[in-house]
Design a protein that fits this description.
The protein is an alpha/beta fold. It has eight helices and nine strands. It is globular. The structure holds adenosine-5'-triphosphate.
């Protein structure tokens, strides 16, 4: 787990949601009374498949509109301007059919950077991701692990104040997982608030300070990571932390 004293003063945009509800075909898929991200460097969101984890972070990142409830970014409704501060790495990131570096340059230019600035920042981002050697390789030729690192480098190049990550290491080998975890750790230390959806409980223990457990669209337990694993309060969290299947 990150040492809180290592992290820069957290001045990032707090993101919150109130009374968020999403319903489809009469089924309540998301039902969250209140959630705030802003005080912890890394929060892990855990829960079984279909629990609503992706839906929650997409909603908070402004990519999905809730049927009811409000999302707030630093006290305001999500806006185009705010997208520079609130980032999201999708579970299956979309990379353009151009070189690795061009993917990052494009994102930076879209965010308002001039060409020279974008080129310099993109090279810096690839360097931090250990991807300089494949900067000119077409993104579609990269391995799964390299693609994920590139998508992460692109997201971090925009220097978001808060970054939502949807299972960034799913299907990666241990070495690629470690690289992504190092990138997450470095970003968190530099002051980016990270919200990480993961099925990897060891990863949640390694990286997060706070854990949220979701089940059937609700947050059923929220607490310090050590407390969650060592002293879970709800029967569901006890079962989940013990590796049992939540239905
Ligand atoms: N557009 C949609 N229409 C109907 N149901 C949907 C829609 N999008 C998602 N769902 C359902 O909402 C529920 C929550 O989905 P979500 O992707 O948030 O789960 P998750 O916790 O991220 O799961 P996983 O761990 O499998 O990625 C699932 O039951 C899913 O089938």
């Amino acid at each position: 787990m990150l040492d809180r004293t290592d992290t820069k003063a957290l001045s990032a945009t707090p993101v919150s949601g109130d009374n968020l509800k999403i319903e489809r075909s009469g089924r309540l898929l998301l039902d969250v009374e209140r959630i705030v991200f802003g005080g912890d460097a890394v929060t892990a969101i855990l829960g079984p498949n279909g629990a609503g984890k992706s839906m929650l972070i997409k909603t908070l990142a402004g990519l999905q509109k809730p049927d009811r409830g409000d999302v707030s970014w630093n006290g305001s409704t999500p806006s185009r301007d705010g997208y520079r501060k609130v980032g999201m790495l999708l579970q299956h990131p979309v990379l353009f059919r151009r070189s690795a570096i061009a993917n990052v340059i494009y994102a930076l230019k879209q965010a308002g950077h001039g060409t020279r600035d974008a080129q310099a920042l993109a090279h810096e981002a690839l360097d931090h991701a250990g991807l300089s050697a494949i900067a000119d390789t077409s993104a579609r030729l990269l391995s799964g692990g390299e693609k994920q690192r590139l998508a992460m480098a692109r997201a971090l190049a925009l220097k978001p104040e808060i970054l939502f990550l949807d299972e960034p290491t799913a299907s990666l080998d241990p070495a690629s997982t470690l690289r992504i975890e190092e990138m997450i750790g470095a970003a968190a230390k530099a002051g980016t608030i990270i919200v990480l959806v993961t099925h990897d409980m060891a990863q949640a223990r390694r990286l997060s300070e706070r854990v949220l457990l979701m089940h059937r669209g609700r947050i059923i337990e929220a607490g310090r990571t050590a407390d969650f694993f060592d002293r879970p309060k709800t029967p569901e969290a006890r079962a989940f932390a013990a590796g049992e299947i939540l239905l």
